[in-house]
């Protein structure tokens, strides 16, 4: 086990990581009091995940694929939204009442 203060751990971090990779432990201290420990973590699983691990545990009823009732669908998609006009496209001109002319605008304050 290696004990090192913070300053030394900053300066020799790559060496300590090599030691941890080899199976050692590094204790990092602050004013000679242990604060943290560097240890090796388990290697991630390198193989592919097995397919069908829950086979036989999950069942989907035949009614799952039936269409939903109209009342249920209307709760998510009200008819008012279906009857609303489509939104304006960016390239189309808007009516004149939306874009006021320059003479109707309020004057801007001058910067000092």
Keywords:
112 residues, alpha+beta, YefM-like fold, 3-stranded mixed beta sheet, 3 strands
Give an overview in words:
With 112 residues, the chain is α+β, with helices and mostly antiparallel strands. It has a domain of 37 residues: YefM-like domain (YefM-like fold, 3-Layer(aba) Sandwich). Helix content is 24%, strand content 13%. The protein is built from 4 helices and 3 strands, in the order E-H-H-E-E-H-H. A 3-stranded mixed sheet has the order 1-2-3. Strand 2 and strand 3 form a beta hairpin. The chain is flat, with a radius of gyration of 34 Å. It starts with a strand and ends in a 29-residue tail after the last helix.
Helix and strand topology:
Layout: E1 2-5, H1 6-11, H2 13-21, E2 26-30, E3 33-38, H3 70-76, H4 79-83
Parallel strand pairs: 1-2
Antiparallel strand pairs: 2-3
Measured on Cα atoms, how large is the radius of gyration? 34 Å
Side by side, the strands of the main sheet go 1-2-3
Beta-strand residue fraction = 5-15%
Given as residue ranges, the uncertain stretches (5+ residues, pLDDT < 50) are none
Write down the overall mean pLDDT.
81
Give the overall shape, derived from the CA principal axes. flat
What is the CATH superfamily label of the domain at 2-38?
YefM-like domain
**Helix proportion range:** 10-25%
CATH class of the domain at 2-38, named: Alpha Beta
